[in-house]
Amino acid sequence: MKLNHLTVKDAITKLKKKEFSHAELYKDLHDAIAEKNSLYNIYLSLDAEAVSKADALLDTPLAGIPIAVKDNFLTTVLPTTASSFVLKGFRPPFDSTATKKLQKAGSVVIGKTNMDAWAHGSSTETSDFGPTKNPRNPEYLPGGSSGGSAAAIAANLTIGAIGSETAGSIRQPASWCGVVGLKPTYGRVSRYGVIAMASSTDSPGPIGKTVEDCAIMLTHMAGHDRYDGTTLPRPVPDYTKALTKGVKGMKMGICYMDHPNIKGTDLDTAILKAAKVFEEMGARVDMIPMSRDGKKGTILAPDYAIGVYTVVQRSEVSSNLARYDGVRYGADRSVFAHEAKNRIMLGTFTLSKGYADKYYVRAQQVRSLYRKNFEDLFSTYDVLLSSPTPGYALPSGASNGDPLFGELQDMLVEPSSLVGNTGISVPCWRNPETNLFLGLNIMGDQWQEEKILQAAAAYEQATDWNEWAK
Fold first, then answer.
1. Catalytic site residue from 96, 107, 123, 145
2. Which of 64, 285, 371, 433 is least crowded, fewest Cβ atoms below 10 Å from its Cβ?
3. pLDDT tens digits along 355-397
């Protein structure tokens, strides 16, 4: 087996046992990148000196393993562009807290991965540097906005990766690329040094080959940061300790499978089969009916979240992108691509006098209803089961001309993202004709990462969908 196919756990273990050297690991990785990157368009930049840094890190927790980093995380060693020509060639003066923590733990940033420009999209087709292709089937999209990081894992062009999620941007590409993606609780991982999209929901997190890989990376990414006031001074557990606890006695609820766009599809079948696996392991699984009023014992339909997220996200985008005026970064606002301009204009409109109460305030009120609905459900259930996206990856070009493409593809995760809950996507189905995957989204309440990891690890070990976990 080529060394670039190793998981984070296996790479660390074998490096520390000196079964191979960093030079051998990085050679296999760079050979694979040289062979495949031009086809998939995953990396925007690579650190040619990465291997020279790794040898000195053998005795650290992460032992010098390479990590692929989404290009909206500030890194001093490589340019940070957010896949936009506005920031082409920009070299940050400091590192993001998340990448700094991972480097302090002993990882090496091997390269920066492609993404939807400014994280605006769910396809990685809005990148100014060209679209990324899905390694499972290059005729299809990898998802987004962290599509480059998910594709890097799927193609074995890295050992581990990180991305950021505002509403689906980790879990949706993880689902479409057949890998594992974990969206932490809002505030569990610092946003400092991550180019802001929607500041009230942005959540950095790991993307990996296995649940264990994500647990390892999250353990070293999470924690309070004095530079990010939304992080809390809560202790960070060793998340890997939750992986062997099993699910016996856990209460789980299945969500959204009675949605008219999902009922009777492969996704419906896949989630119900996953529920059977949990029941066989000793969990109690209920079907939670969807409702339009969020009454007790039901889950509020995700359709309303499309409008809420559209208004809130565009409003925050218009504020966050206002700083890119050409004075500091070298390119003026005319360089913004079509998607960014659309979002700025819509956000500015919704915040303007006479319209803020009509749109923005109303959106926040509905957001509060989702929060109350989840509080009710998590008072009964340990985790909720769904999917990050309504179906398989769509063909390349599917997002062109669709202003709500991302919102529709992320519909099933937008409610939980709006209220800051945590969730993880693990492979749960594969279409043998297209080689495309579906993901099982295991959602937990805020600060319940250990529960979702516990359930995800149990499912991964009980099934054969994840090739790296066999």
1. 145
2. 433
3. 888 899 999 999 999 999 999 999 999 999 999 999 999 999 9
